[in-house]
Amino acid sequence: MPRRHRRGTTDTILHGGFNMKKMVCLAAAICLTAGIVSACGGKPSADGGTNAGKSGSAKNTTLTHLTWRVPDTGKGFEKVVGKYEADHPGVKIDVKNVASDQYSNTLKTRLLGGDPPDIMTLGPGTDYTEAARQGYLLDLTNDPMLANIQPSALEAAKVDGKVYGIPYDLVSLVVLYNKKIFKDNGLSVPTNYDEMIRLCETLKAKGIVPVAYGIKDNYVTQFLPYMIAPMAVYAKNSNWDRDLAAGKAKFNSPEWKRVFGVPFEFQQKGFLTPNALGVGDQQSVEMFARGEAAMTFTGTWATSVAKAANPDLQVGMFPFPGNRQGEDNWMNLSLGQILSVSAKSKSLEASKAYVQAWTATEYAQLWTDEAKTMPSVKGVKLAADPAVDELAPYLSKLKSWQFANVGWPAGVSDVYMKKFQEAFAGRATLDDVLHAMDEAATKAAAAAK
Fold first, then answer.
1. Which residues form the signal peptide (predicted)?
2. What pairing do the DSSP bridges indicate for beta strands 331-332 and 400-401?
3. Are residues 371 and 239 in the same domain?
4. Which residues in 261-413 belong to E strands, given as ranges?
5. What is the pLDDT of residues 171-225, one digit of tens each?
6. How many domains does the chain contain in total?
7. Same structural domain, 308 and 444
């Protein structure tokens, strides 16, 4: 997925091995947790997995947990790690947070340099897949700790039929909106693209910035297009990624011009924050939270960031309506993170015990309540977050697809992000962006032969 939560990217979420059945089941699993449907789930283990957090630890041990998730998960790490250390005297968890745009390279450097973290956070893509295939991750396929994870989430986390980490939460890219601004101006949530354009025009005419948008952090360039791609591309051809790999499809095409053209249309119409290239991801969410814009493009994880900036914020969320009138909208859905144990950890059993604790219902509930994510652990309730609750009806009625770059060849999303920023600055065109992506895909395909 895009990373910075996740939010992400370099190539964290490429080659995820997702398919339509997996995505439908992921959505159903979330709805089950929310009490909407009863499919693709399963009852939690009798003890809720709580015993998992109190076994298998070693005294006087320090474990390193490498992640990028600390800034946007509230007090999630503080609560979970604090409880684990309290439950396991003598065990210390050293959480090392790395900026999301540096995470992939940092992780690869440590793995290749023989200095792996004991536990690492990964996304369901290239980093995870390659690390598993190269023997860096412990195979957990038959480990009892998996029993408390939703089966659909486990299926989405498989590499060549095996599980190398705990698929921990589920996320979606969304539009956050200021409910007070909408109410005060008699506005409603748009249901298609034309309504979205009219909404932004109305806000602009009232002197309100429609969208807080900051792409100084290049991964944010993915958020808006990846909300549109499920409906515009994959709903029409679920095998598009395979066609790209086979040389039968290209990014320089009408459907992808539609997807990637939307941010530039918003820029041209004056719907976005001025000087977006100078505004960072968290800064744009905080600008939204302070009421400096009516909406922002981000992910379900960002409500905790927004509420931290303004506890009184009345925030809602909806999937971006990229659909034209008469078209069905789709939403995106992906695993938020996978917790993996290094196969080369010097404290292997202690590392496994720590990861196992995260699968316990009581630990997972702590995380969910703080991070405001959608849980994949059985028996965990959605966080008491009205904004997340507002997304539940969409999960029950809309089809979904993973983040667009899950199935792209390695390196394509990096090329896209760099070229997108150039185009946004006026130094390249949309055609240049798409042509560069096609060149990167062709290069990756040749290297794979």
1. 1-39
2. parallel
3. no
4. 295-299, 315-318, 331-332, 334-341, 374-375, 400-401
5. 889 999 999 999 999 999 999 999 999 999 999 999 999 999 999 999 999 999 9
6. 2
7. yes
Helix H, strand E, coil C: the string for 377-418 is ECCCCCCCCHHHHHHHHHHHHCCEECCHHHHCCCCHHHHHHH
Residue 440 gets the label, from left (phi > 0), alpha (psi -120 to 50) or beta, of alpha
**For residue 256, what is the domain's CATH number?**
3.40.190.10
One domain for residues 299 and 441: yes
Residue 205 burial class via C-beta count within 10 angstroms: exposed 0-12, middle 13-18, buried 19 and up: exposed
**Best CA proximity match to 411, nearest among 159, 130, 171:** 130
| Structural contact between residues 260 and 433, judged by C-beta atoms closer than 8 angstroms | yes
3-state secondary structure of 17: coil
CA angle 371/139/241 to nearest 5° reads 70
Query: How many angstroms separate the CA atoms of 155 and 149, rounded?
Result: 10
Which pLDDT does position 382 carry in this prediction? 76
Would you call 427 helix, strand, or coil by DSSP? coil
User: Does residue 301 have a pLDDT over 70?
Assistant: yes
Containing structural domain, residue 238:
173-330+409-448
In this model, does residue 313 exceed pLDDT 90? Answer: yes
- As a whole number of angstroms, the distance between CA 396 and CA 441 comes to 34
Pair (91, 200) in one structural domain: no
pLDDT of residue 5: 42
The pTM for the full model equals 0.79
Would you tell me the crossing angle of helices 361-371 and 348-358 to the nearest 10 degrees? 70
List the Cα angle 258/259/260 in 5-degree steps.
100
Handedness of CA 449, 441, 339, 401 (dihedral sign): negative
Q: Within 10 A of 113 (CB to CB), how many other CB atoms are there? A: 8
pLDDT tens by residue, 59-75: 789 999 999 989 878 79
Q: Is residue 102 part of a domain?
A: yes
Residue 297's Cβ-side half-sphere holds a number of Cα atoms within 13 Å equal to 27
Q: Does 10 reside within a domain?
A: no
Answer yes or no: is 428 within a domain. yes
How far is the C-alpha of 392 from the C-alpha of 156, rounded, in Å? Answer: 21
Predicted confidence (pLDDT) per residue in 409-429, tens digit? 888 999 999 999 999 999 999
pLDDT given for residue 199 in this prediction: 99
